[in-house]
Amino acid sequence: MEDSNNLKNKKCLIETPTYIGVSIILVLFLLFSFFYSITFGSIDISVKDIYRIILHKIFNIGSIDNLSRAIIDIVWLVRLPRIILAIIVGMGLSVSGVIMQAVVKNPLADPYILGISSGASLGATLAIMLGIGTTLGSNYVGISAFIMAFIVSIMVVALANLGGRPTSTKLLLAGMAISTLCSSFSSFIIYTSENREGMRTVAFWLMGSFSGANWDNLKIAIPVVVISTIFFITQYRTLNLMLLGDEVSITLGTDLQRYRQFYLLITSIIIGFLVFNAGIIGFVGLIVPHIARLIFGTDHKKILLMSALIGSILLIWSDVISRLIIQGSEVPVGIIISLIGAPSFVYLIVSRTYGFGGKN
User: Fold this and answer.
1) pLDDT of 144-154, one tens digit each?
2) What predicted TM-score, i.e. pTM, was given to this entire model?
3) How does this protein sit in the membrane (predicted)?
4) Out of 3.40.50.2300, 1.10.3470.10, 1.25.40.10, 3.30.70.2740, which CATH number does the structure's domain 16-350 have?
5) Cβ neighbours of residue 359 under 8 Å, at least 6 residues apart?
């Protein structure tokens, strides 16, 4: 009962009118970030030409016949898909982080702590260093990473089910064990290989990038992430209940185990598609949910949407920085995220006004 009262109090950290106002501000800032970020790039293209191309391609408004084919392709095939992918990845990682932390009831959980990251890394390493999966086509590295991420998530659930009912603790320990195993295999393959170029490719891919964004992949990634996010928002009552623990949930007549497994599988699908498109980008799923809880408390009805918006904005500007920080080159976006995320996370840890689930 005490936990229930605490959760109820934390839900009231921010009033509904304020929540709506902050939501509108974040949506407007996301739209501003989306349109403004398209203007950044190594090649100078006028803002007018950029929006002429977008309006013509999407709504068939105006003419772009006087623009060169190269400029049209840079805007339509490079910059726009890249920004949209950054939004989708930020949304997916942040929402997955919220779900992971609720499922295992651990504030340090993120989409990768259950081994999904290490599984994807192993898949990419096998593809790049050993050429496994080359028959899958030009995107064989990403596809191999997706397959291994999904296999690992199945293994984690299966391992947690051994020896009785799966619990959040067993899920966490199973994930850590399989993550360590996958990392060991990846390290062994890289250590014993003499393929220097392959090592550089693996390192760059594991640090994440949006440079491979294209419309064909976005047609799949967008519905997967958006539909999953909407689904999880509808599940906010169950997610709130997970923070209270199994004993309370059983008392209230809800068995959380089947929900945990189902949510974990959906999350692994999201992460698999994101890894396929952008490589591995850490820290987003860890810090963004904490930022949302710091402002909005524990109610998942609020923090899921807020995390999606904050994560999207964070990755848009991280990608812009990654492209501008070195002239004529691109820094892996994972490095930028770590530089931003690590100090932010340290601040959250030392803050006396913050605890898992909101302010103390």
Assistant:
1) 877 887 788 88
2) 0.84
3) Multi-pass membrane protein
4) 1.10.3470.10
5) 10, 13, 294, 297, 353
